[in-house]
Amino acid sequence: TRRALLPHFTPKRIAADRAYTERLCDELIDGFIDAGECDAAVDYAQQIPPRIIAKKLGVDDAMVDDFIEWVRGVLELGLQQPELRVKYRELIRNFFAAEVADRRVNPKDDLITALCQTDHEGELLPDEVVIGMCNLQLVAGIDTTWSSIGSALWHFAGHPDDRRRIATEPELWETAVEELLRFYAPVTMARNAKEDVEYGGVTFKKGDKILMNFPGANHDPEHFEDAHEVQLDRQRNRHVAFGIGIHRCAGSNLARMEMEVALKAWFERIPEFTLSDPDAVTWAGGQVRGPRIVPVTFG
Description:
mainly alpha; 13 helices
């Protein structure tokens, strides 16, 4: 299934999504720039990935608010309330089951249709596999990326030296995006041990559930000089914000593009901004970590 997805997330394919992302970011900023204030998370960061995923999958843009609610239900609210996680997973599955059934009869120029028409060992991918891949796009591709964009805006709002530096040295964007991904890595993944493993004086038994602390690894002083500091021009930066090995994030090219475009669009129009109420900032925990409320003032 991974091989079926990867061709749709190459740098060349992502370049086609860039113009839409730039337009979207400008329209979102149009909506609040005259007010001189906004919630950088709710009004901006959280609005971008759901719309891009909706466009890529070929589903109605009006579903965006539902997507946000469903993903938060699975990844955030569902942490303490398992029945909510089950409920929202079912909503997502049923929605995509209907979309897949529709594309089998009415093909379109979108990712769901492309997956429905993908040949695997002489047969089309079964519905359940396509539904699962759509589910993955939504749950893995929305909260993670809006968390990265939100964390970056939160950082710049509270660190005036970095904010002014990136505003006046645009050549730093490439290394800055990687450094913000490293420092505020939003994802902690989990695996089941396939066999008994001894590591660091601990024995993991076959079947044990293990959290893979990517954010912790990204702050390892043995691998990163001054690991506890954000350095926008960090040159050696082999971070694992997208994981590593065979399960490395398939959508990393899309996430990087969204983050870069969202931050550049913001800084072109709002280079100077600060947190209006630092105490009002809230963060989501669990497997995806990022700010959920980031009130800022500007202008």
